[in-house]
Amino acid sequence: MNIELIEIRDFLASHPPFSQLPQDTLERLPQRLSVRYFRRGSPFPPENADPLCVYLLRRGAVELRDANGELVGKLAEGDLCDMPCRPTPEGGRFFGNTSEDTLVYALPCAELADLREQHAEFAEHFDQSISSRLRKALDIMVDAPAAGTGLMTVQIGNMINRTPIVASPETSIREAAQVMSEHRVSSLLIMEGDRLAGMITDRDLRSRCVAVGLSTDRPVSEIMTEKLQTAQVDTLGFQALITMTRLNVHHLPVLDGQRVAGLISTTDLTRFQSANAVYLVGDIHRATSIETLVQISAKIPELQVHLVNGGATANHVGQAISAITDAITQRLLILAEADLGNPPVPYAWIVGGSQARREQSSHSDQDNALLIADHAKPDDDAYFAALAKIVNDGLDACGFVYCPGDVMASNPKWRQPLRIWHKYFTNWILKPEPNSLMLANVFFDLRAVHDPDNLFPELQERVLERSKANRIFVAYMVANALKYRPPLGFFRNIVLIQGGDHDHTFDIKHKGIVPIVDLARIYALSGGLPETNTIERLSSAAEHGTLSKDGAANLTDAIELVGTLRMRHQANQLAHGRKADNFLSPDELSPLERGHLKDAFLLINTMQESLGQRYQAGRFA
Predict the structure, then answer these.
(1) Over the range 220-242, which residues count as b (16 or more CB within 10 Å of their CB) and which as e?
(2) Do 377 and 498 sit in the same domain of this protein?
(3) Global pTM value
(4) Which residues pair with 583 in a beta bridge?
């Protein structure tokens, strides 16, 4: 084989779907190709070509447009154009022109058909839709982790290895303790017939019986926990772990429908995962100083690396780390109140941004605010200013750095009574100016992490009512969201960052994740939906009809794939002792990963165009 054919073979071998062909087929394939050259501005695919061919771009660029002339995609080095080989009418749906001088390898459609018939994996690339390819790619990423723990795929029903130990509500506390000692368990399910009535743990025996001098002859119903969080047998181990982390509990009753199947504990889960978010949260709740919290928070990067290596998706990592941030915030508030005394009036500590959406990576910056009861007096602000300073300084010391835009409770503007917050949101909705839209991206994702007097639900309900009823506001939000476009053809130098510290990279957060987060926020606001997590918003929007089920599924797969690539990039940096960032070089990705990422970007672009047309976003840009 001459040098030119070897170069073509090596190029094919490094670009999907040809990279999926066996070696002997790749050796013969270059001789079946022709090389074509197109000057800038030429129709593409070429008109009246004989024979019809599939084209692989070796160099250059192509812009694809629909019948209305709207840009729907871009092709660059390594991209495949198979429109001429598709059956009509799909093959005539898009039209293209070369935007640069372009060199391609052309393979006749008949030859392509032979390859598809002979090689199933190769054929899948053409048989599957973009959404199907994304789903398969995501499944592969999760099912084939670098160092698996199994917790991402195992169902907790398969982890139950013994019949549940139970007692009745009338059982005495002494008898219950004897049963627990006999069976060497730290918890006991309390059953009323076939109904789960409650549960007791070693902690309950200590704190609710021994510590208060309660007679052990009393029925166990007096110390049991009645309102229990449960999980179904088909719940994934990681989902159970997240539930335990949020609630700071170490036992979870498992149901099969309504029937009690058993009990899962953190001990069971740690058989699968050694670095455990639950135990970090437990340590946080026992911390007596900011210095201790700083020591605990230093373990968060290690946890992110462990989760990613164990096959965790971006959603898994975000849920775990956000639960830890919530716990640190709550503990700082307790320490602050212990130092300052009881608050003069009720308040809620509310968070925005990625923490509110439960989508944090290790040590994100902080976005937070204080919602104070309306009957607060002017003098009360001194207390809340001091409280905010302790918590904001504490979070910064723990690695959650100060917000660059000063969106923190230490800023008096974001430390206000409920009535002022109502005015803020009313103005943002009725007067959607650029600054209002920027703030909306933070404050329309709010979530309360401390709200003992339930101040936040009233504010959230009113905000959702106003935003849902104001179509013009939503249209402005759409126009603002469309400013963040995915970098189609991102691996070409002309669209990568040039020079500086991030030369030859692209920002995967702002170019890949933010566009989906913005879309999900708009679907939620237009439907008056209370969810803040992006995936939960997409699911809820599909249920309430503000987004199609296919659209929700596609965007969910897209954000999981893009987000997981981002988490893996960061985990690799952290594992090598570097600071994590969002600047990904295409050289870090395999050709197949680049192809999947481009599929995700194409889906995002399509959904952005659809939403923009629905709200005529161009009028509000």
Answers:
(1) bbebbbeebeebebebbbbbbbb
(2) no
(3) 0.71
(4) 507
